[in-house]
Write a structure and sequence with these properties.
Radius of gyration: 17 Å
Shape: globular
Number of strands: 5
Distance between the termini: 22 Å
Length: about 210
Amino acid sequence: MAETDPLHEIAIREMFRRAGASADVVVDHRFIRENISGVDNADIVEKFLPHLSPEDAEKWIVDKESYFREVAKTQIEPVQGLRELMRWIKRRGIAAAAVTNAPRPNALMILEGIGLAADFAPVVIGPECSNAKPHPEPYLAAMRKLGLQPEDCVAVEDSVTGATAAVAAGVHTIGILTSQTAEAMGKIGVTHTIRDYRDLLREIEA
């Protein structure tokens, strides 16, 4: 929905520094794309900050998300074409859910920041489910809430983790290339890829 990878790069670089992450870890765009985008915080800590105690790990997660919100709140912008697509969806009475591994405060901040908080219901948070993405449960939970079957749905995903979850849930999955490559998305099994939501709207209206 929003191009958050550059903001995550700022937050992760600083919070890794504070936590004493290995000097071998270079936080750049590629690192964020391959290791952070769509990944649950607990998995990030386990992989890159294994020296933290459970208590310190939990505090790091809270502090990292707080820092991310501070960085993002004045810089967040929707991916091009999203507002136009949501107007098209709203006019036709189509349901739209947000399914994300982001903590709820972050997800709501992003939706409010791009002016689309009222357009998505439900907002399903992966770590609040029995399993987060890449497990399909967050998508299955969204479909249960909406009373829909996989064949009734389309998912647009910008991360390998998210696309893996959507494909596993049996949903027609489109990869949006704001943070991943077409090759990476294709390996997961997305039906096709788009550069931004303007591409999708053109396809729908064609």
